[in-house]
Amino acid sequence: MDKLKAMYHLCCIAEVGSFSAAAKLAGVPVSTVSRSIQSLESELGAALLKRSTRHVALTEIGKIYLNECKDILAAIDRVEGRVGSYQNAPSGVLRISALPHYGEFRLLPLLEEFQQRYPKIVIDLELSSYAADLQRDGIDIAIRGGREPDGRVIAQRLEDNTHRLCASQSYINKFGMPHNLSELVRHRAILYRSPAQVLHWHVESQGGWRRIDIDTAQISNSLRVIRQGLLTDQGVAMLPSWSIEDDIADGRLCWIPIQETLSVIADQPVGSVYMLYQQPQYTIPKIKVAVDFFKNAFSGR
């Protein structure tokens, strides 16, 4: 027995006063309404209706049960209405975990447009280098750098994260442009400190990697501090293009072309920046529109 349909049929009978009229209202055969009510009464162990040849009326317990049925069916209508609205206008809290610097430089400029487009979505943005587990930590979308993750999550590549040498144009004018490693080591390095370690530079040599012996001018875990060190001619740094693209375009900073292959982590190319999400979660409207929005925003980069 479909109890919800039986409740609905009882409401129809109470409204129109007969099985035949109730069947017409519900759009089903009279026999369907009759069997539905009989099954309901049998399961409840109580008579809900008083039947006569001319009229059908509710029993005392039938009136009480009818009121509860109306409340239940109305609650279901409200919930289904909310689901429909939710599908049409994505809403809810969207939890995003992003690398601190990438979140500041790349995501924050986009979030204003996103929230104007989807005002019912509340952004809960966590800027952290901690590699969150999406399912365990309740994260909807994670932004991470490195090599492509395993197949447990969908990894949408956003852009290149390879680090390259750079300096200010005024620094190059003062101290010269290094073209190879032997010239580079005469300069001073501004190094980035990750949560785990200082990222000293390495050069690919004879099938392996070795650390570059270069004087250090400054160490920081802030790309803004490193950028300021570059602009004040403190030394040279290795940064991804996304972090200083405006300075490169304006000519304040420039890339240093060097013959050798360098890396900030030996034996581990930095690779790309990825947007991570769980495939089953993509059906949730707030996650779907966010994934599609960020994918489109980065597609031209």
Order of helices and strands: HHHEEHEHEHEEEHHEEEEHEHEEEH
- CATH architecture call of the largest domain: 3-Layer(aba) Sandwich
Helix count from the secondary structure assignment: 11
Radius of gyration equals 33 Å
Tell me the number of structural domains: 3
CATH superfamily name of the largest domain? Periplasmic binding protein-like II
Cα-to-Cα separation, first versus last residue:
58 Å
Give the low-pLDDT segments. none
Q: Fraction of residues in helices?
A: 40-55%
Q: State mean pLDDT (0 to 100 scale).
A: 87
What is the percentage of strand-forming residues? Answer: 15-25%
Query: Which structural class should the secondary elements be placed in?
Result: alpha/beta
How do the strands line up in the largest sheet? 4-3-5-15-6
Work out the number of β strands.
Answer: 15
Largest sheet: 5 strands, mixed
Shape field:
rod-shaped
Kindly summarize this structure in a few lines.
The protein is an alpha/beta fold and about 300 residues long. It has 3 domains: about 5-90, Winged helix-like DNA-binding domain superfamily/Winged helix DNA-binding domain (Arc Repressor Mutant, subunit A); about 90-160 and about 270-300, Periplasmic binding protein-like II (D-Maltodextrin-Binding Protein, domain 2, 3-Layer(aba) Sandwich); about 165-265, Periplasmic binding protein-like II (D-Maltodextrin-Binding Protein, domain 2), CATH 3.40.190.10.
